[in-house]
Amino acid sequence: MLTGPDDPAFCRRVSDALGLGYELYGSPAITFDGSRVIVAQAVRWPSDE
Asked: Which of 40-48's residues contact partners 24+ apart within 8 Å by CB, and which partners?
């Protein structure tokens, strides 16, 4: 699970994980902590199935 502020650094972390072979898992989540938007995206390592 990748989490963090909704900023370019978070987008890079997701892109880097995908570049390493991880896959997105489910829908992203978003919330507001009172001062900034926080996002989350689950990723998973692909199975050998």
From this structure: 40/1, 40/2, 40/3, 41/1, 41/2, 41/3, 41/14, 42/1, 42/2, 43/1, 43/2, 43/14, 43/17, 43/18, 45/21, 46/21, 46/22
- Continuous segment of H or E residues that includes residue 15: helix 8-19
| Structure-token pair, residue 49 | 């199935």
User: In terms of Cα–Cα distance, which of 16, 23, 28, 27 is closest to 49?
Assistant: 23
Q: pLDDT for 1-49, tens place per residue?
A: 999 999 999 999 999 999 999 999 999 999 999 999 999 999 999 986 6
What is d(CA 36, CA 26) in angstroms, rounded to the nearest whole number?
23
